[in-house]
Amino acid sequence: MARDRNTGASHYPDGMTGYVMDPHGGPENGSVRAYLLHRAKPHIPPWLGWAATGLVGALGHWRWPDSAAAGVGLTLASVALTGVTWAAGKSTTKQRRLHSAVTVACGSAWVTAACLAGPTAGPVDDLYLMGGPAVALSWNVRVVLRNNIEGTAGGSSDGGLLEKVGLARAQIGAAKVEPNRVTAPLALEPGEQTNDDVAKALARIASALDLPKSAVRYSPDPDSERRGDLVIVPEDMLSEVVEWEGPSNLGGSIADPLNLGRYDDGADLLIWLPGDPDAGRNSTHLLIAGGTGSGKGDTALNVLTEILSRTDVVVWFSDPKAFQDFAPLRAGLDWGVEGGTPTEVMVAGVEAAIPARTRWLGAHGYRQWVPEAAQTQNDPAHSCRGDGRACGCEGMPFLVAWFEEAANTLRALGDDAFTGIAQEARSAGISLVVSLQRPSYDQMSTSTRASLPSVIALGCDPRDEGFSLPETVIDAGAHPGAWGNRRPGYCYVVSPGIDESRYPSPGRTRRFTIRAVPVMERLAAWAQANGAHADPVTAGAVSGVAGRAYTGRTTTDDNDEAQPAVALRAVREEDDEMEHGGLLVDPEDAYIDPEQELPGSEEGDDAPIFGQDTGRKPTPEEARRLFADALAEFEAEGRMVVGPRDFKDWCERHNLSRPWVSGQLKEAYLEGRLEPTNATGRWRIVPALTAA
């Protein structure tokens, strides 16, 4: 019941109004008679109808006494009026429909009899005096029951809301009231309404309650097509910005939930990456999708900082934007690369690690990765030995392969670049994280998208909602297109381990400001000292593909300042050379014997003649040797994916043609020195030791 500010009247669920009595003896607005009149108003119409029926019967007898034609006409009119009443009551409840039809049938039958025989003939007047008040009282009882019993005894108390939105025959059960959240079970009319009708009415429900569309959700019962829970969140608790102050579980396991923010009712926004056989939860891959300005960068930082704060996980990270947002965390990564060729190598490295890790997990009795797999294998139940004794093998940490701004990688490698990884990596204890603005099917293959079970969907164009969220979640009330870039950090999360009723509930991730930079740097240093390192199986598999391009996690020096191990060695060697004076000749001349005579002149050494090739061409044997040396130089530099365009300067320097290089690349492939890639004209270098 709501109070009217202007009239002092109180509005009841059925729309009637009444006056509140003054405790000192009179009503607040008017006299006792006015109060009684207002209370009697809902009960007067049935009695007015009874009186009007008697008047019509008397006038009809005066006009058509003993008329056979009038009897036929009145009978047909009575049947027609009863049928129209039954048809018009289709949108109401069964009880109201039947009550209305019976009332009309009785009234029209009495009018017919009164018109033909007279209102006082035989039992006609007795039926009027006894049956009429009974019918009127039945409607009065119905009004009383609707206002008092259903409104207070646990029945439907929607105050006409469902009728306004086109769900008049639906029934609302007892609501569960929580802080800033109301959950009401809803039962629809059998055979007439389905859960889809509720999904279509959510916008009208939000309008009737004067709430945003995202504040009203519907969670269908998976076992019924006509039952579900209507969830209403009256207050948006996400409007307040919460800054990131540090990870939620420093030193925990990656199997523990990652806390990314909160839902609109204040509950924590949690996701899980590894599976849990005890809880029946599968491992998952994660898609982070959102338009420009939607807060995708801050969301990714929330996820990455939570991952780096755990002790049994390593991260391989590709960022074509040169770590613009993630630079403070780069030292904590096991492998970080920028776009282009290094990312191609990382994709190949992940593909190579999958079978090696799967083989190790299977040999140690793990059907999927669990935290025990990251520990030294001292349990005989997880031994790779055939004699049943503990093997003592080094544990295998969980692996997260993250591809930031993945649209760049997909354009370079093809829309199915991640298909194999997405389909096979989960069983190997690997989670794939793909972040991009628009996961449309012209950028990412349908097979890859179908293999990404989890998604964090931030604000986007309304037309792109279907690319990020399942249709069932959108039907339940999730609409990231309503935010666009106006509410950074607002998101919907769909992931194993989250109650499905939470899928259409909006959440918001924490914001990263300039004040978060030193905290992130300290987290990266902590990860260097306390985080996991790649196990020998994973490191060996990726090194067999990436060669020196994969160096593993960086180390720390005495001052706890992160430095790559290779860079440290180079600095120390340079210091040694400076201390002893170093070489006094150019490195390329270091191995020339000063006592040896110079070689004689050869054809082509003279100045070039107009119209002829410049310089001396190497012999076929020399050219092949130079080509092999070039591959070795590329491998030493970590450039493990090459093509003819990478030899442009080399061809000019040695006076060789690009078609000749293309032929040598194919020949190197036949010799096992190169492997084809997904991209046309691109080859992956097989490390020299592996090829041997």
UniProtKB/TrEMBL annotation:
UniProt key word Glycoprotein: no
Keyword line: ATP-binding, Membrane, Nucleotide-binding, Transmembrane, Transmembrane helix
GO MF term (any one): ATP binding
Xref: InterPro entries: FtsK/SpoIIIE/SftA, FtsK_dom, P-loop_NTPase
NCBIfam families per UniProt: plasmid_TraB
Region described as Disordered: 596-619
TM regions (residue ranges): 44-62, 68-89, 101-121
Higher taxonomy: Bacteria, Bacillati, Actinomycetota, Actinomycetes, Kitasatosporales
Species of provenance: Streptomyces purpureus
Binding positions (ATP): 290-297
Compositionally skewed regions (Acidic residues) per UniProt: 596-606
Signal sequence interval, chain numbering: none
Superkingdom in the source lineage: Bacteria
Domain (FtsK): residue spans on this chain: 266-467
Name of this protein: Sporulation protein SsgA
